[in-house]
Every structure is written in C-alpha cells, then in structure tokens.
What does this fold into?
Amino acid sequence: MEHHVKVDSSSNQSNEELDEMDLRRGPWTVEEDFALMNYVAHHGEGRWNSLARSSGLKRTGKSCRLRWLNYLRPDVRRGNITLEEQLLILELHSQWGNRWSKIAQHLPGRTDNEIKNYWRTRVQKHAKQLKCDVNSKQFKDTMRYLWMPRLVERIQAAAAASGGSSSTSGTTATAVTYQNQNCNMDDDIAQFNNMVVQSNMNSCNNYGNFQINQSSYTPENSSTAASSDSFGTQVSPISDLTDCYNYPINQGNNTHNNQTYYQPNANQLAYGESLTSPGGYFSHQGVNYQAMDQDNRWMDGGDAHDDNLWDMWSLQQQMNNNNI
DNA sequence: AATGTCATCAACCGCTCGCTC
DNA sequence: AGAGCGAGCGGTTGATGACAT
It folds into this structure.
C-alpha cells in the first residue's frame, strides 16, 4: 500500500515547496532504499532534509532519517532480543524509564524503536495481565525480584550449556532467546499470583513487597535450569515491608530480620553488582556476555534480507564504477 | 476454507531541544 | 534575547502475518 501526502507539518519546509512535492508515505520500496543507501554512502549521514531534497527521494527528512537509523544502517542488529539484552533493558528501564534512545545506546545495534516495541509488546503486556500499572511499585518489584533473577539464571544456564566460560566459540547455546526457549513470563505471572496470595495471607497489605528465598535461585536446584517451566521460587512471609524492600539484595549478609534474601552464590553472576553498573553485565564471574552477544548476532535470526540488500547495493556500486 | 483476533514492528506524528544568526 | 530551523525523542498508528475459532 502506498500513501501520499501533500503537507508534512513537521518537515520544516515551506508551503510552496510542499505544494510542489508529492511526498510519499508508508513502507519503503527497494528502489528507495537503494537511493538512500547510495546517497548516504557518498555524502554521509545527517542534514536529513537537504538529503531528502537532493537525493530525489519523495520523502521527508524525518522519514529518511528513520529509515536509515532503524533499518538501513549497516550496523543495525536485527532478530530476537536475547536474554542478556532483555536483562539489560529491564535494568536500564528501571533506572531511566522510557528513555529509549538512552537505553538503546547500551545495546549495540539495537534501535530505540526496537526497544520501545519490545517493551510495549512484551513487558507492558504482562503488566496488563498482572492487572497492575507498568510503573507501579509492585510491577517493578516483580521485574526486579522475579524476572530479572530468572533471566540471570537462564543466562547462566545457557553459558553452562556452552561450556561455562566466555563463549567465543560460536556455539548455539548462548543464542537462546525469550521466544524460542519455551519459557515466558506467563510462568512468572502464576508465580506472582502465588506471591500475592501468600503475601496477603501474611497480612501484607502491599503485595508488591515480597522476598525470594536464596535457595530458589541456585542453578543446582532451579526448576528452570532443570528444564522445567515452573518457577521454583519460595516466598517468605514479610514482617517489615519497608525494610525488606530497601535492603540491598547483594550485601554481605543474606539474612535480615530472620528472613532470607536472594543473593547469587559465588559461582553465579553477581547480579546485585550490576544494579549499580549496567555495563557490568558483560564482565562478571568469567562470563563474557559481550562475547556471547557477539556470537548471538550469527545465531538468533539475523535477517538475511538485510545482508542481501547490502550485497545487492555493493554489486550495483561495482557495476556503476565499471560503467556496466 | 473463511473469518476473527492478537502480536509484532515499521513508520508516522507532534513535540522538544539545541544550534545558529 | 528570541526567532527560525534541523534533528532527535517518545507516543501512537496501521499493515501484516500468525494463530484460533
């Protein structure tokens, strides 16, 4: 389908120009992609409005910019969001909120648009299923104390499956993604509901406050690591909600007020540390997640179309250079 | 097989920010 | 100082494919 528009109010072009231009909207054609790629290759990025005028594309500068940044840019990474990326998104979003471009800066090759879509389609969906606001404390607690530790666990399981060390070997084990691992947040929703019940049973008015037994998260006894979909979290009753919530999850002591807190053991990824250092995700305990990330580029569904497009473009350039 | 519903993601829109003059 | 402009950001929409009925 093809749309045309006479006036783009945000294109910052004069009305006279807009009257003359029959601007295109909607999906980009291969020809348009080539034209944009060709122009950027010769003139560089930026100055999008003048680019749009000079390149002959009947698109707004904004449209050209978006197409380039989100799709045509050579280093744009496509395919499923990996576990490591999910973990990073959750953590960074907890720090910065909907600062998508800022979050995207920490996920090489991912665009703000992609991360935003991931958040809206995956995370917000589950907030809706939990019948709580995505910005509510209880939902944030669910992410922090349930989903994120679980992601860490899965990352470790994947690393262990690939040899348990930094993975530069290009094995498929690290390419496990949210979608294809047969695990999803639905399990966690059931777990969350259990927490609600138990929390309420213990006269806890705010069921967003809960604690997670450390033993639940060790790889040894993890039901997830043992290829079960159920999440073996144990929930401890809470006596002091505020204290419980504020207590750092990775301090030296793993007990407080006779309660047990989640704390990775020595062999686990130091998740707690990464809370203050997002970049630290990629260098903990001998698990080189950055390297894993690189490996995943080849494993998790990179879109062949992109490669083909660039191949075709390169071929076209060669032909042009040779005056073929 | 036809239709309806849902999930995903590319693209658009309106707004803000920052730079230049 | 402030107007004009380009670029970028975040929210939203619409097309499309997958899946369910």
About this structure: Strands of chain A lie at 3-5, 23-25, 211-212, 235-236, 255-256, 259-260. Chain A has two domains: 3-76+303-321, 83-296.
